């Protein structure tokens, strides 16, 4: 016996719209540095780990923060696969591990026309938060392992919220005639 309710409309007939979420690198680094500063400030004054914790995006540490940001954004795009799915262009077929420092990260999505603006806004905030928390987790694993657990719990909670949005039913709920004779 099938369920009389269907939460998904036919994907082929569903009208879609293109939206983007842009996360500015400068804003991400600013928030990452602020959180790291506060975390370091809460440590003992004579602790060597204090300045190490606070120096997350300074000079020689910036490439580590950048790689962690790049990974976090790539993860976000993959987590939103139902919306971000697209074919690889020929120019994108070959990737290198050269450090990329884009001024902004843009996640392009194809969403149903009924996709809510409030969901779009929430997703933008969650993605920003996820990237910041993920970078802080990666950094704390090196600089302050005791604090890493806190950041891991935070980014996992944010990840679950993003996953919930990605798995949300799209389109209108339709009641199927029941019973099916």
Number of helices: 6
Average pLDDT across residues? 85
In whole angstroms, the N-to-C terminal distance is 11 Å
* Number of extended strands: 4
Strand coverage percent: 5-15%
- How many strands, what sense, and barrel or not for the largest sheet? 2 strands, antiparallel
| Oligomeric form | single chain
Overall, the morphology is globular
Describe the secondary-structure layout.
Blueprint: E1 5-6, E2 16-24, H1 25-41, H2 48-54, H3 62-79, H4 81-84, E3 104-112, H5 117-143, H6 145-166, E4 174-175
Antiparallel strand pairs: 1-4, 2-3
Word description of this protein:
- Helix content is 52%, strand content 12%.
- A two-stranded antiparallel ribbon has the order 1-4. Strands 2-3 form a two-stranded antiparallel ribbon.
Give a nutshell description of this structure.
The protein has 181 residues and is an alpha+beta fold.
